[in-house]
Amino acid sequence: MNKEQYKTYLRQRLYENNENPLKLRTDGHYDGHQITQAHLDWLGQQPEVVAATGPVTLTMPDHLPTLPNALIGPASGDLPVSNDHPKVYNGNRGGGRSHDSKMMPRNLRQTNAITAITRPDKETGKPFLITAFGGVLAPQEPGDPNLRPENKEASIKFWAEHALADGRG
Question: Which residues are within 8 A (CB) of 7 and not within 5 positions of it... i.e. 6 or more apart?
Answer without folding.
Answer: 28, 31, 37
